[in-house]
Amino acid sequence: MKGQEWYQADDVAEEYDDKRFSRGGRLIDRREKRALLEAVGPVEGREILEIACGTGRFTTMLARRGADVVGLDISAAMLRQGREKARRAGVADHLEFLRGDAGRLPFPDDHFDTVVAMRFFHLADDPEGFLREMRRVASDRIVFDTFNRFSARSIYNWALPMGSRLYSKSEVAVLLAKADLTLVDVADDFLVPYGLYRAIPNALAAPIRAADEAVGALPTADHFASVSYWTARVR
Questions:
Q1: DSSP letters of the chain?
Q2: What global pTM score does this model have?
Q3: For the chain (length 235 residues), average pLDDT per consecutive 10?
Q4: Which domains does the chain have, with CATH numbers?
C-alpha cells in the first residue's frame, strides 16, 4: 500500500506510535522534537498550525509549552488518537484537531505565527503548491523536513516503495524561492536510515546513533544525511 493510503488506514492509526516510535524509534522521536523546537524558537503564546499532525505527538508537545495549536490531518483515525493524547496530557484546551486537506488549507491568510509540517513533505503531490499554502497562512515562518536524495534513504525507498519523494538541497532551494520564502536555517541529520532504528532495541540503537552523530559532525557528512529540517521566513 502506498504512503498516503497506508497512513490513513484505521488499523495503522491505532498502532502508529508503537510501530514508529518504540524500540530504537524513540531516538528518532526525541531528535525530531528537538529539531522542531530549535526551528520554531520560543512557542509560548504563539499560534501554530501543524499540517499532517497524525497522532499529535508534536501538537501535544507544543501545547505543553504554552502554544495555541491547531492540528490538521486527513485521517480521522489519526485525529481520534491525537485528541485522546491531548486529553491525557491535560492540554486539550490549547489544542484543536481538524480534518482537512494540506493542499487547500481552510484558514485565512496570515492566520498563524508559524506553520509546521513534519514527516509529510515527502508525500506531497504538489510540493510547490504545498509550500505556497503554508506560506499563505503563516505570518512569520514555516518549518518542514525532507528526506534527501543523496543518502542511504534512497536504498530504503528502493527496498520499500511507499511513494515517497526524495529531494536534493538545490531542489528545495528552488521551491522556497518559487514560494517567495527566505531560508533561515537547515539542519541535517541521520546518516543511518530511520528504518534501521525502528527495527532494533533501544540498547542497540543507542551506540549506532552515537556513531551516526560522530560521523555526521564531520565537515562533508551533511551531504549524505538522510533528513534535513528546514526553517524559512515569510518575506
A1: --HHHHHH-HHHHHHHHHHHHSTTHHHHHHHHHHHHHHHH---TT-EEEEES-TTSHHHHHHHHTT-EEEEEES-HHHHHHHHHHHHHHT-GGGEEEEE--TTS-SS-TT-EEEEEE-S-GGG-SSHHHHHHHHHHHEEEEEEEEEEBSSSTHHHHHHHS--S---B-HHHHHHHHHHTTEEEEEEEEE-SS-HHHHHHS-HHHHHHHHHHHHHHHTSTTGGGG-SEEEEEEEE-
A2: 0.89
A3: 49 61 81 95 96 94 97 93 94 95 94 96 93 97 94 73 82 96 96 84 90 91 92 93
A4: 3-15+35-189+224-234 (3.40.50.150)
